[in-house]
Amino acid sequence: MTFGRSGAASVVLNVGGARYSLSRELLKDFPLRRVSRLHGCRSERDVLEVCDDYDRERNEYFFDRHSEAFGFILLYVRGHGKLRFAPRMCELSFYNEMIYWGLEGAHLEYCCQRRLDDRMSDTYTFYSAEEPGPRARDGARPAGAEAAPSRRWLERMRRTFEEPTSSLAAQILASVSVVFVIVSMVVLCASTLPDWRTAAADNRSLDDRSRIIEAVCIGWFTAECIVRFIVSKNKCEFVKRPLNIIDLLAITPYYISVLMTVFTGENSQLQRAGVTLRVLRMMRIFWVIKLARHFIGLQTLGLTLKRCYREMVMLLVFICVAMAIFSALSQLLEHGLDLETSNKDFASIPAACWWVIISMTTVGYGDMYPITVPGRILGGVCVVSGIVLLALPITFIYHSFVQCYHELKFRSARYSRTLSAEFLN
C-alpha cells in the first residue's frame, strides 16, 4: 500500500460509525473486493474512489454504509457462519450492501436467496417500471428541458392507460373498457343460444347488428392496445407482458376470421359451421381476462399464482403420485382379482385415474364407483388422502395471497392519492 501514513501497521475501517482495525497484510488479500482495493491505492484520488472519506493522520477510511449489514458480511467472510439477511432490514437494501462490498447473491443461504428472488420479482413487476425517478419526484428539470413537456405527456398517457386509479381520465377510460368487455361477452354468450341462432337465421338484420357490435368492440380494443404500445417505455418489455399477450390472443382471431371471409368468399352461415372459425370466435373469451387491468382481485390472483408456482408444482406432484398409486390398486381390486364379477368401469388404470381424481377432490360424480369391500375401503382412504394432500400447500398459498392483496391495495391507494390531488387542483 503506497498511500497512507508511513509506518502504520494497521488501517481502520469506519463503516457507519463502527470501527474495524485490519493489518496491512490482511488488507492485501481481504475477501471483500472493495476493501482489498485499498491496498493498491497510490494517491488520495484513488482512495476516494473506493471510500467516502479518509483521515491520513489516523489512517482511517470512512464508508457511509449500513454498519449492521457490514457486521454480518464481515462475520461471513471471516468464516463465522453462513450469510443471512440482517434482522429488520429490507432484503434489497442488504443485497445492495453485498454488491457494494463485492459479494453476490450466490453467497446467501438458500432460504435467503429465495426471499431475495421473490422480493426482486415483486419489485420489478410492480414498482421498477412505475415509480418515477428521483428527479421526477423532486420536480427537478432534467437535461434537455425542451424535451421535458413531451416526456411528461407520454408519461401521463402511459399512466392513463396502464393505471386505472392514476387520474380521473384513467378511471373514465377504464370504465369504458369494462363496458366494452361486458358487451362483447354478452353478445358472445347470446350467440350460442339456440333461440338466438334460429332468430338470426330468420332475421338477417339481427346477425348484422351483432357483427357491428363485435366490430366496434374489436376496434376499441385494437385502438387501446396500439396506443398503449406507442406510449410504452420499453417496446420489447411491453410485448412480453402476459396481459398484453392475452390482449393479442383475444384480438387476433377476429382479424383472421375477417381475412378468411375475404379470401374464401364463403357466406356467413357456412363459415360459422367451420371448426376453425368456431374455435377462433370462442377465443374471444380471453377478453374476460382484460378485466384484470381494472380489478385488484384478479391482479391478486395472478400475482399469487406467479409467486406460488413452486407450491403449485408441489401440489401437482402430490396429486399425480397419489393418483398413480390409487388407480393401480383400485384397478387390481375391482377388476384384476376376479374377472367373472369384475367392475367394468375399472377395466384399465387410465380409467381408474378418473375415479381417483374425482374422489381425491371430493367431487364424486357417481358415474363410476367401487363395488367390492376392499375397493370401498380403498375409496375411503383415497378421499381422506386427497383432503390431506390438498390442504398441505394451502397455508403457503393463503399467506402469499394475503401479502399480494395488501401490496396491491397499497399501490392502488398511492395512485388514489394522486387522483385526489388532481381532482382538488
TrEMBL record:
Its main location: membrane. It holds the Pfam family BTB_2. One of its GO terms (cellular component) is voltage-gated potassium channel complex. Signal peptide: none annotated. It comes from the Eukaryota. GO terms for molecular function: delayed rectifier potassium channel activity; potassium channel regulator activity. CDD domains: BTB_POZ_KCNG3. It is found in: Cell membrane; Cytoplasm. The chain crosses the membrane at residues 168-193, 213-231, 243-265, 285-305, 312-333, 345-365, 377-401. It is a multi-pass membrane protein. SUPFAM superfamilies: POZ domain (SSF54695), Voltage-gated potassium channels (SSF81324). GO terms for biological process: action potential; protein homooligomerization; regulation of potassium ion transport. Keywords: Cell membrane, Cytoplasm, Ion channel, Ion transport, Membrane, Potassium, Potassium channel, Potassium transport, Transmembrane, Transmembrane helix, Transport, Voltage-gated channel. The keyword Aminoacyl-tRNA synthetase does not apply. Belongs to the potassium channel family. G (TC 1.A.1.2) subfamily. Kv6.3/KCNG3 sub-subfamily. Regulatory subunit of the voltage-gated potassium (Kv) channel which, when coassembled with KCNB1, modulates the kinetics parameters of the heterotetrameric channel namely the inactivation and deactivation rate. Potassium channel subunit that does not form functional channels by itself. Reduces the deactivation rate. Moderately acceleratee activation. This is Voltage-gated potassium channel regulatory subunit KCNG3. It comes from Heterocephalus glaber (Naked mole rat). The gene is Kcng3.
